[in-house]
Write a structure and sequence with these properties.
The structure holds 2 protein chains of 2 kinds.
Chain A: E1 6-9, H1 13-25, E2 30-33, H2 36-46, E3 50-54, H3 62-72, E4 79-84, H4 89-97, E5 102-105, H5 110-123
Parallel strand pairs in A: 1-2, 1-3, 3-4, 4-5
Chain B: H1 10-23, H2 30-45, H3 48-69, H4 74-177, H5 183-214, E1 223-226, H6 227-244, E2 248-253, E3 259-262, H7 264-280, E4 286-294, E5 297-304, H8 311-314, H9 338-348, E6 353-357, E7 363-370, E8 377-379, E9 385-387, E10 395-399, H10 403-415, E11 419-423, H11 426-435, E12 440-443, H12 454-461, E13 466-470, H13 479-482, E14 483-488, H14 493-503, E15 509-513, H15 517-528, E16 533-537, E17 554-557, H16 562-573, E18 583-587, E19 596-599, H17 606-610, H18 614-624
Parallel strand pairs in B: 2-4, 10-11, 10-12, 12-13, 13-19, 14-18, 15-16, 15-17, 17-18
Antiparallel strand pairs in B: 1-3, 4-5, 5-7, 6-7, 8-9
Classes of the chains: A alpha/beta, B alpha/beta.
Chain lengths: 126, 625
């Protein structure tokens, strides 16, 4: 089975382009999805180590997707980042309760995201 | 147990009475014996004059009996005279007792009715308080809702701004940190940044437009606009966008050129927005724009062959920041405010907007704009055509029950370019005010409205001027000219006396015309404490005929409906005996403080009502404020 390092799911094309550019440039194997359902099927087929899900997406939102994936991949679930524009405490709490591992508020710095991912891969041996 | 039956008590009561009767001489002279109890009984039930007359008759009877039964010597005559005097004294005492009793009884009745009146007033007050409380609760809920909407609006703005901002930040950082980027990628990222900047600018503009519409500051000038030219302009502007996406953009005009009364640029904005959305959400086929006549409106339509909108979403697409999410793989850039702005612009013009759509069959957006009406054109002095355009936000709520008056006023106001909403009572007006914004309220119902009426408090809270008009096409003119003063329930000394003192009534005679007995009694009691003589009349009574001895110096008109007050005033004024007597009008509640009075010409010049009347001038001045 083909595996990838990072899966990015967002309905905004420029976010997809920016994140995929920085991860590809750093040598990661990546894939993208434009809605929740596509992200779920790619998670099943590509078993990414790290996943970035937008909170508000068509067909399935980030929280729902997170719950499904965490329930399905009990043994080795991907490390999930939720991307959101909102950033209120309640959103963060909801995301963490749904099983997300971290929370990223837009606008974010690509460098910081990159550093975070590198740290995770190195320290936690994801 | 047997004691409970009243029949068993009779021997016990009758036996002592018979004993008293026998031992006091009642058995020998029953006529004399019966005199005292009869006098006591009639002193309670009958008027003093009758009692005195009965007593005198008894006395005379006794005197005659004594004289007839015995020889007429001096002793007998003296005894008969003494007895006659004693009987007269008894009758006089009984009569005075009866007078006191009847006075007390009358006072008791008045006090009772006063108490009843006060109880009723308290009930009315309690109801009014409850109504005020309900209004306050409603206002509080609305404020809470407004606050929630504002927070939601700000949250949505922040959300919509963060999205393009994140693109700008990400790509600018990438461009700064990756110096080895090839020209193609650089241009691609700069293009992303540029698009995000445009998106932010559009969003800011849309927010400003939306806020302008919400606060009523969106300026719009209504003109005669041809719909065919308007649609052609939009098609020319949007065709490149459609061609770039491989779509067709056609016009479909079903009838002759329809002229609408609208702000051209704003209708173009609505059409462009709808065409833009149609192109963005359509991948194959094309978009058709057209217009047709529907009653007094021109109905524009924009038909696309896109994916369509789910029924659940059709109601929400005109909400601020709502966007159709399915199809977001290629989600077009937008502020989420476009359709809400379209809706507001159409509504400001007095039209409606809606959508018909089914999944897989595309969508049809329709909106209506009033057609241009030739009526508002009038000739000025030089013979030039003058347009009375609808004033921006010049909406008037007219409360009038009289159909002719209502039509006259509406016609005058509409001729002057105002939009008029009419209703026939205060409750309906209150409901209308809850859901509609008006700039002025004119009431023709008379001063039957209380100061604590929910409509007035609502008008005051919304800072809407409230005008009270008195328009009479026929003489006698204006009611309030004849009314010297107002009193109001609950009636009390402190509010009635100052008016009466100003009137200076030497004989202190006042007439109260009321159909409400309790009200009359209360007023009578209050006035009786100040030694005023009162006469109570019903509305149906024949007023002040020459046979009447009571000629009032002032007349109090009770709490009638306005139409009835008109009739009563007419009736009084047509009666020469009381035509000049000052009139005091009783109200159900204190007269409203903030009501301004507009008076029509007293001679009933109808041409003024049908043309630019003084009312319209007052409204013009009020609107300028």
């Amino acid at each position: 089975m083909k595996t990838i390092d990072v899966l990015i799911a967002d309905d905004e094309p420029h976010i997809l382009r920016a994140l995929s550019f920085i991860f590809s440039k750093a040598g990661f194997v990546i894939d993208t999805a434009v809605n929740g359902e596509e992200a779920l099927s790619k998670c099943r087929s590509l078993t990414p180590r790290i996943a970035f899900f937008d909170l508000v997406m068509p067909k399935m939102d980030g929280i729902q997707l997170c719950q499904l994936i965490k329930a399905e991949f009990r043994q080795q679930p991907p490390y999930i980042f939720i991307l959101t524009c909102k950033g209120q405490d309640i959103d963060k709490e909801m995301c963490l309760n749904a099983g997300a591992d971290d929370f990223l508020t837009k606008p974010f710095s690509p460098k910081e995201v990159m550093d975070k991912v590198r740290f995770l891969l190195a320290e936690k041996s994801l | 147990m047997s004691m409970k039956n009243p029949c068993n008590l009779l021997p016990i009561i009758i036996a002592p009475l018979l004993a008293v009767c026998f031992f006091t001489g009642g058995a020998l002279s029953p006529f004399r014996f019966a005199y005292l109890p009869i006098m006591i009984m009639i002193s309670i039930r009958l008027p003093p004059r009758v009692i005195f007359l009965t007593g005198t008759l008894f006395a005379c009877g006794f005197a005659v009996m004594v004289t007839l039964n015995k020889p007429a010597d001096m002793h007998t005559i003296a005894a008969a005279a003494t007895e006659f005097v004693l009987y007269l004294l008894t009758a006089w005492t009984a009569a005075s007792v009866a007078t006191t009793v009847s006075k007390e009884r009358a006072l008791f009745r008045i006090s009772q009715s006063t108490f009843q009146g006060l109880c009723n007033d308290l009930t009315i007050k309690a109801n009014n308080l409850q109504a005020t409380l309900d209004t306050l609760t409603l206002v509080q809920n609305r404020l809470k809702n407004t606050d929630r909407c504002r927070t939601l609006f700000l949250g949505n703005i922040a959300h919509e701004l963060r999205t393009p901002l994140s693109g700008i930040r990400a790509f600018s950082e990438i461009l700064l940190t990756h110096e080895d980027l090839d020209m193609k990628s650089q241009r691609e990222f700069l293009n992303f940044i540029n698009n995000d900047c445009i998106r932010m600018a559009t969003l800011v503009n849309d927010i400003l437009t939306s806020l302008k519409i919400q606060t009523g500051n969106l300026e719009h000038t209504l003109n005669k606009v041809g719909t065919s030219e308007l649609i052609n302009e939009c098609i020319i502007a949007m065709r490149p966008m459609a061609i770039a996406k491989g779509l067709t953009l056609e016009s479909s005009i079903t009838s002759d050129n329809i002229f609408i009364n609208a702000d051209k640029n704003q209708v173009i904005q609505v059409l462009i927005n709808l065409i833009n959305n149609a192109i963005k959400y359509t991948d194959e086929g094309g978009v058709t724009v057209g217009v047709g006549l529907k009653g007094c409106f021109a109905e524009f339509f924009v038909i696309d062959s896109g994916e369509g909108i789910f029924p659940s979403e059709q109601k929400m697409i005109f909400d601020e920041f709502y966007r159709v999410l399915d199809n977001a793989a290629n989600r077009p850039i937008g502020s989420g405010l476009g359709l809400s702005i379209c809706k507001k612009i159409v509504e400001v013009h007095g039209g409606m907007i809606g959508v018909e759509s089914s999944i897989g069959n595309g969508s049809t957006f329709r909106f209506t704009i009033p057609i241009f009406n030739e009526k508002p054109f009038q000739m000025d002095e030089s013979g030039e055509m003058v347009t009375h355009q609808h004033k921006d936000s010049g909406r008037i709520l007219l409360i009038a029950r009289h159909l002719v008056k209502c039509l006259c006023l509406t016609r005058s106001l509409e001729d002057a370019g105002y939009k008029v909403i009419t209703t026939y009572n205060y409750e309906k007006a209150h409901d209308i005010l809850m859901y509609t914004n008006v700039n002025l309220i004119i009431s023709d119902l008379g001063l039957t409205i209380g100061n604590n009426d929910p409509l007035l408090s609502q008008a005051a809270s919304k800072m809407i001027p409230f005008y009270q008009s008195y328009f009479h096409v026929e003489p006698p003119g204006i009611i309030n000219q004849f009314i010297t003063g107002y009193i109001w329930s609950p009636f009390n000394r402190s509010q009635i006396l100052p008016i009466l003192e100003t009137l200076n009534l030497p004989r202190k005679k006042i007439c109260i015309i009321s159909s409400n007995m309790e009200e009359s009694r209360i007023l009578q009691t209050v006035l009786s404490f100040e030694n005023y003589k009162t006469e109570l009349l019903n509305n149906n009574d024949e007023f002040f005929t020459s046979r009447r001895s009571f000629l009032p110096e002032a007349i109090i008109i009770g709490t009638f409906e306005t139409d009835q007050i008109d009739l009563i005033v007419d009736k009084i004024k047509s009666n020469s005996t009381v035509a000049n007597v000052p009139l005091i009008l009783a109200l159900k509640a204190p007269p409203p403080r903030d009501i301004k009075l507009i008076t029509a010409p007293a001679q009933g010049d109808t041409s003024l009502l049908f043309g630019i009347s003084p009312l319209v001038q007052i409204i013009e001045e009020e609107m300028l404020k």
